Task: structure prediction
Amino acid sequence: MAATPPAEPTRPSPNTVMRALRGDRSPGEFATAVRRAAREIGEHVSCDARYVGRVESGEIRCPNYAYERVFRHMWPGRSLTDLGFAPRTSVRRRSADSARGEAPPPLQPPFPPLPAPRSPLSTQLPYAASPYADPPAPDGPPWPLSAAVPRGPAGPRFLDEENDDVRRRTFLTGGSAALATAIGFDRPAAAAPDALVPGRSAPVPLRKVGAAEVLGVEQAVRDIRLADDVHGGDTLFELAGQSLRTAYVLLNEGEYSAETERRLQAGAGELAISVGWLAHDSNRLADARSLYAEALATARMAGDSALEAHVFCNSAFLARDAGRPREALRAAQAGQAAARHLDSDRLLALLAMREAGGWALLQDRSACERAIARAYTLFDRGPCEADPEWMSFFGEAEIAGLQSQCWSALGDWDRASEQARLAITLQEPHFVRNRVLYTAELAHDRLGRGDLAGAAHHGSAAVALFGDVRSARIRSMLAHTAERLRPHGAVPGVGDFLAAYDVAAAA
Result:
């Protein structure tokens, strides 16, 4: 008997409704209107003309949750299907059916023994994080595809700036066994998740999720943070993303009690924030923005103000590094509103420092100084049991480092240098990545002051400390310092720094 040829892939149907709603506006003008509507409801989307084209062509059959909220805000009373999109359940069903035969990701401890192979300083990324450079306008994938990107039946898996829900999670899985074995989620692939199996009249039984699975998700968050403290985000991003996908599989396809649901939502949200931070630290700023939007949606659906405050805290930091100071201010202030009743002065102190960073970029010295003073008043009240577990990094060294960044943005190089030195002195040894960060920032501050020899000295110290730390954000700082010092090779110490940097970059 002749083999049945594979079915031809279905061509997407154009979304004529969204095209009609755009009217005579250009795709770019329509994208601007979408971003404006998102800001009105506190959402963060990076809509551009390319995204509008993908919607209208039908490539995006169903938008992610953030876009859904924005579109329904723009056209109240209309459902997704009224806007020309496919129901979310049908999109997920197709994803599940296409994945049949590939087992869901087993859940095992999320990271192999570290350190992993060193990533050379010369690794080039599309752009450096602000304040050293501004990101370009989005016109393609946020970083180059490489052989390291996992592939599947549909080709390369990568995260566009604002991809639809199914494709984004497909990228995050990578097909790895990162978290599933540890929390026991290793059912056979034949048990298709999410919806009815074609040809059957009854739903597939749901996987029972209990305390063991929840503990596995919570431990994955801790493991990611501990590894990040030492190694930075570059090589951890993919591994952590695999864990995140599995957490959402449990949340979306499991059967559980109300208390388990609450903990799963919090755990999945914290994982999304952790993966978003790794994306930020590795200069994948568009990915970080998308992941934080996912975490914020989870927080709001769960009514979890602690998770919401955490999202806004990280979003403020991301917006500052992306050169969006007013967005940083709004996020920091929204975080303070969410945290107001959580009884954690340290959390409010950190959010006040995030606000100070936004004021500094806006060159509003008096507002920045008021925010810093408020942060220190709160910080000096000391830690308490209500402080979130994720804030373990926020000690005297970190608040000094954040203050240094404010003075640097304001061009007060002596005060910036003073606080950076204090941060280096106070930093606990196991926060390896932060020690490198503060040292690189001190080199930057001395360069701003015009102290070329001092910049070279601290730049050399940062290169020596880099070791197994893999953070594109810090590499961009060192690259910026080296570029500005290169014309001054005759200054004592500059030649030694450039030689050490070049050797490390070529390794």
